[in-house]
Specification:
5 helices; mainly alpha
Length: 94
């Protein structure tokens, strides 16, 4: 059997605790990792889709569409509005 170096053991411990609270069954880290790999293998297409969204590089056209859909233009004189709000909130200036 080979071993895998676990970087974020605390997260795995929290997952084990959550599962214990919900199911009443305690799993070892090895069992949890085995089950996670099994689940991912069964749902591979969904997992790959999540990976591709997490590391996706947006095209300029996609960014423009997003901006057109969600960014509001408050008109002339509001270009620095976010900077002014930041100054008030973080610097205590009015």
């Amino acid at each position: 059997m080979s071993s895998v170096k676990m970087i974020d053991k605390e997260k795995l411990d929290r997952l084990a605790a959550k599962i214990l609270l919900r199911t009443g069954k305690k799993y070892t880290q090895q069992e949890l990792l085995r089950l996670c790999v099994q689940f991912t293998d069964e749902k591979l297409d969904e997992f790959i889709m999540k990976l591709s969204h997490a590391s996706r590089i947006w095209t300029k056209e996609e960014i423009k569409q997003f901006k057109d859909k969600f960014v509001i233009d408050f008109g002339e004189g509001t270009e620095n509005l976010s900077e002014e709000v930041d100054k008030i909130v973080y610097d205590g200036e009015e």
